[in-house]
Structure prediction request, 165 residues.
Amino acid sequence: MTDTSAAVDRRRGRDETEEERADRKWGELIQEVRVAQTGVQILFGFLLTVVFTPRYTQLADIDQVIYIVTVVLGACATGALIGPVSLHRLVSGRQVKPQAVVWASRMTFVGLMLLLATMTSSLLLILRVATHDGFVPYLVTAVVVWYLLMWFGVPLWTRHRYSSR
Prediction:
């Protein structure tokens, strides 16, 4: 193989048809969604129980608002992360898998953003109730920056650093 043909092979990537690529991407996406779904469903389930505890009525009004916003965000995140499963079921066998992968990927990204918002507001509520200290916003901000770094910063840096140009 010449240097030129080796460079072409590297640029081209896998030797897949569009359908094979869609099948592979779908499998990878579903594995990713399973991880996120589990986390958001456990968090959402926990959030649903809080309102039924005696302590809920003792929360300050602002904390009850934060709780309601958190539950709604959790419900939306759950819906977005379960959406790809429903999409696949409804379009399966219709010869639209490449397009379904694109839409499922978008749903997953929205779900991750909603999960980030849910985790942020959950952390804010818990730390406000647990500490009543002025450092809570700073701590929550630091955790959000950590999430953004782990979920987006490192992956985007890796993509930029190691992608072929």
